[in-house]
Specification:
globular; MFS transporter; MFS; disordered N terminus; mainly alpha
C-alpha cells in the first residue's frame, strides 16, 4: 500500500483546487504528518471526499474478493464439480495473480496517471466478476478468478497515491475514515459470503458473491470518473521494464505456488524444487534492476526506496505481522469447521467479534496515532498478544468452546489488529519521493501477499500436523493451541521489529 507526497504537482482538469474542511468528527492522524511538505500548504481538491468514496469502494472490492470464496466453496463444488485442489485454486489463483501483477500495476500508474490506470483496472475487474458469476464450468470460473486478480493488481496500487493527490497534508482526515473500513473489510469477507450464499438472492446462490461486485463497482466507476483528479503521469517518459516484469512474475510464481499448494499436497518434491528455484530467479531479478538503474534505464523497482529506513523496516514488519494474522485466521476457521463441525455461516458468525474489534480498533487508532506515533503499533500488538494468551488457555481447556465462547478474546484481538492498520502504511511510506510511490506500493503489496501465503503454509501445516480430519474436538483444540502459541511468538517478533520504524511519522515543515 502506498501514500503519495503532498509535494506532488497534480494537474486538475476541472475545477480550481481549494481547501475544504474535514467532516465533523474526522480525526487528524499521524499519517497526515508522515511526509515532507513544502513551505506553503498545498492546495486540496474541492471534491476530495467524493473521490475518497470512490477509492474506498474500489479498495473494498479487492479486500472482500480476496477472502470470499472459501465459504462458498462447498456450494460451488456441488454445482460445478472439481477436485479439492481445483476449489482451493479459486482463492489461490486470485491471490497469486494479484501478487505477481502488483509490481507492474504500480509502475503503470507512474507512467500513465493514477486515475486512468485505476479506471482501466476497475473496468477489467468488473468484467471478470461478471464472468465469475456467469461461469458454467469450474475451469471457466478459475480462469475468471485469475483475470480478476490480475486487474486487481492494476487498480490497487493507485488507491493510496490518489488519496495523497486528493488530500495533500490532510491525509490524516482521509485515514480516519479509510483505516476503520479496511480493518472491518479485511475479515468481513467470509461473513458477507456466508450471508449471501444463505440468502440465495434471486436464485443466484454462490454466484451472488461475485455479482454483488457489479453495483458497487459501477458506482465507484461513475463517481471516480467524475471526481478523481486527472493528474499527469508522475514520471513522464518512463518505459515499462517488460523483461523485469517477466522475471519477477516467474520468481514470484516459483515462490508462491508451492506455498499455496505444498501444505495441501503434503509438500511433494516439485514444491520444494520450486521454492529452491525461486531464490536464484529473484536474485537475478534484483541484479537486472541494479544493472538497469546504473545504466540510466527505467527499472521496474525504484531501488532508492531501500535506502529509506522506514520502508525497509516496514517490509520486515509487514511480512511478520500479515503472515501471523492470515495464518492464524485460517487456523481458527479450520478449527471451527473441521474440529467443532460448524457450518460456514455459523463459523463466520462465531468470528464476527473479530471483525467488530477490527473496526473499533481502527477508529480508536485514529485518535491515538497523533499522540503515540509508533507507540500505537506497540499498543495494538500488546493487546493482540494478551488476547492470544487468553485463547491459548481456552484451547487448553477440557471442554470444547461454544459458539460465542471465543468472542471476547477474538474481539480484543481484532481491536489490537485494527489499531495497527491506520498508521502503519503512512509510517512505512512517509519518506518516499513522489516518483518512488508507484513502484514502492506495488512491492509492499507483493510482500504482503507473499507473507499471507507463507503464514497460511506454515501455520496451516502446523495445524494439520496435530489434527487429522475427523479427529474430533479434543484433537482440534490441541492443534489450535499449538498454532496460537506460535502466533504469540510471531506477534512478539513483530513487536520487536516495530522498533525499527520511526518513532513518529515524518513531521511537516
Amino acid at each position: 500500500m502506498n501514500t503519495d507526497s503532498p509535494e506532488a504537482a497534480v494537474t486538475f482538469t476541472a475545477e480550481t483546487p481549494t481547501t475544504d474542511a474535514a467532516p465533523a468528527g474526522a480525526a487528524s492522524l499521524d499519517t497526515a504528518e508522515t511526509v515532507s511538505a513544502p513551505t506553503e500548504a498545498p492546495a486540496t481538491y474541492p471534491r476530495r471526499w467524493l473521490g475518497l468514496i470512490a477509492i474506498l469502494a474500489t479498495t473494498l472490492l479487492n479486500l472482500l474478493d480476496a477472502s470470499i470464496v472459501n465459504v462458498a466453496a462447498p456450494a460451488i463444488r456441488t454445482e460445478l464439480g472439481g477436485t479439492a485442489s481445483t476449489i482451493q485454486w479459486l482463492a489461490a489463483g486470485y491471490t497469486l495473480a494479484l501478487a505477481v501483477g502488483l509490481l507492474t500495476g504500480g509502475r503503470l500508474g507512474d507512467m500513465f496517471g493514477r486515475k486512468r490506470v485505476l479506471m482501466i483496472g476497475l473496468v477489467g475487474f468488473l468484467v471478470a466478476s461478471l464472468a465469475c458469476g456467469a461461469a458454467g464450468t469450474i475451469e471457466l470460473l478459475l480462469a475468471a478468478r485469475v483475470v480478476q486478480g490480475a486487474f486487481a493488481a492494476v487498480m490497487v496500487p493507485q488507491c493510496f497515491g490518489l488519496i495523497r493527490d486528493l488530500f495533500g497534508r490532510d491525509m490524516g482526515k482521509a485515514y480516519a475514515v479509510f483505516g476503520p473500513l479496511i480493518g472491518l473489510a479485511s475479515i468481513a469477507g467470509p461473513i458477507a459470503a456466508g450471508l449471501l450464499v444463505d440468502a440465495d438472492l434471486f436464485g443466484t446462490g454462490w454466484r451472488s458473491i461475485f455479482l454483488i461486485n457489479l453495483p458497487l463497482g459501477i458506482a465507484a466507476l461513475v463517481l471516480g470518473a467524475k471526481v478523481l483528479p486527472a493528474g499527469a503521469p508522475k514520471t513522464p517518459g518512463l518505459k515499462l521494464d517488460l523483461g523485469g516484469a517477466v522475471i519477477a512474475a516467474v520468481g514470484m510464481s516459483l515462490l508462491l505456488v508451492p506455498l499455496v499448494e505444498g501444505r495441501e499436497l503434503g509438500w511433494p518434491a516439485w514444491s520444494i524444487a520450486m521454492l529452491l528455484a525461486s531464490v536464484p530467479v529473484l536474485a537475478y531479478f534484483v541484479r537486472t534492476q541494479v544493472k538497469r538503474a546504473r545504466s540510466g534505464r527505467t527499472a521496474l523497482i525504484e531501488l532508492s526506496v531501500f535506502a529509506k529506513r522506514s520502508y525497509t523496516s516496514g517490509i520486515a514488519f509487514v511480512v511478520v505481522f500479515f503472515g501471523a494474522v492470515t495464518g492464524f485466521s485460517l487456523a481458527v476457521g479450520l478449527f471451527l469447521q473441521l474440529g467443532l463441525g460448524f457450518g460456514p455461516l455459523k463459523a463466520s458468525l462465531a468470528m464476527a467479534a473479530w471483525a467488530v474489534g477490527a473496526f473499533v480498533g481502527s477508529g480508536a487508532s485514529a485518535g491515538l496515532a497523533p499522540k503515540l506515533g509508533r507507540g500505537v503499533l506497540h499498543l495494538g500488538l500488546a493487546i493482540m498478544t494478551a488476547s492470544l494468551v487468553a485463547l491459548w488457555l481456552q484451547f487448553g481447556a477440557a471442554a470444547a468452546p461454544g459458539t460465542w465462547a471465543l468472542a471476547p478474546a477474538l474481539l480484543f484481538y481484532g481491536i489490537g489488529m485494527g489499531m495497527i492498520f491506520v498508521p502503519l502504511f503512512g509510517i512505512i511510506t512517509g519518506e518516499l519521493e513522489d516518483h518512488e510511490v508507484g513502484s514502492a506500493s506495488g512491492l509492499l503489496e507483493s510482500f504482503q501477499q507473499g507473507a499471507a501465503a507463507l503464514g497460511v503454509a506454515v501455520l496451516g501445516t502446523v495445524f494439520f500436523s496435530r489434527f487429522a480430519i475427523g479427529g474430533g474436538a479434543a484433537e482440534a483444540m490441541g492443534a489450535a493451541q499449538w498454532v496460537t502459541g506460535l502466533t504469540v511468538g510471531l506477534t512478539v517478533v513483530a513487536f520487536l521489529v516495530a522498533f525499527g520504524l520511526p518513532k513518529q511519522a515524518k513531521a511537516e515543515h
